[in-house]
Amino acid sequence: MFFSKDIGIDLGTANSIVFYKGKGICLNEPSVVAIQKDIGKVLAVGEEAKQMIGRTPGNVIAVRPMKDGVIADFEVTYSMLKYFLEKVLNSKNIFLRPRVVICVPSGVTSVEERAVKDAALQAGAKEAYLIEEPMAAAIGAGLPVHEPKGSMIIDIGGGTSDVAIISLGGIVVSRSIRIAGDEMDEAIVQYIKKNYNLMIGDRTAEDIKMHIGATYNIEIDEEYDIRGRDLVSGLPKNISIPASEIQVALKETVDSILDTIRNCLESAPPELAADIMDHGIVLAGGGALLKGLDQLIRDETGMPVHIAENPLSCVALGTGKVLENIEILKNIRRIG
Ligand SMILES: Nc1ncnc2c1ncn2[C@@H]1O[C@H](COP(=O)(O)OP(=O)(O)OP(=O)(O)O)[C@@H](O)[C@H]1O
Fold first, then answer.
1. Pocket of ligand 1 contains residue 35 by CB under 6 Å
2. Each residue of 71-87: pLDDT tens digit?
3. Are residues 12 and 104 in the same domain?
4. Which of 250, 273, 295 is the last residue of a domain?
5. CA within 20 to 30 Å of 48's CA: 170, 229, 280, 332, which one?
6. Is 307 near ligand 1, meaning CB less than 6 Å away?
7. Using CA of residue 280, residue 284, residue 290, residue 291, what is the dihedral sign?
8. Are residues 174 and 187 in the same domain?
């Protein structure tokens, strides 16, 4: 067999998912690391560290090392990758160093690529391969990427939105912006601060987005109770926020993503654009779950739009398929 102990990693901004060949998804944890600032010691990684966000004492910080979809902090990314790899290898009683396929956003620079590879090798991988995230997402969503026919995938994650048109196993046109789920959370924080004089944390903003967040093209008549800190009195305060206001808060971010999609479609060769018209666009990543987004993209582009079956695990499933099929490996860019 080509690979014996093979592992695929979707090193996401928000969540990291590890796929172990033959076993499926075996780890799915937030990409968060808690660090004791004065001595630089890693205190917790993953789920445990996420619980600490916004709740840490002064000398402990909870960091998201991949914040903008890239390696913002090499040392912390290395610690996180090492922890996830060791957790999977220990739980499966594997003592050999694995070969690892890692997904990176399509817009990464060669310096960032090198940093991801080095982190994987230092964390215990025998060999490290990279695959661009939209390609992995398209494979995970079951698109016919090897056929001479255009497939379009939109992957809206935490830090980046990747849009790609794929044909004959390669990315023909792609666009990547560092505007996605995190930016939506930040827009909600700013909206509530400005309009309610209330300070809320990123986790509350994400909660609001997941419960009542929607694009502006649909009618949604819901409210959500939240708690924050009143900026005038300094005391905790509860308010009920209507979904219609969150639609306003999210408009700018949603419009940036729409512009990127339009821009990618405009650059597509006419034959591929015609294929996409026939078969539609597939939406993946957690952002695909934002209410109304599929409909909005349909209305704005005039193309059919489908949400992938498992939008949050599409990329990891794609790396799994890559590990299992040697033919697909030919399309992986080996770095170094
Ligand atoms: N129901 C939902 N509605 C809106 N957004 C959601 C929903 N569920 C998850 N998300 C958002 O999806 C994002 C995470 O998606 P995903 O796990 O695909 O990203 P990632 O792979 O970690 O990031 P990236 O692709 O940028 O590296 C988060 O911003 C999260 O808040």
1. no
2. 667 788 888 988 998 88
3. yes
4. 250
5. 229
6. no
7. positive
8. no
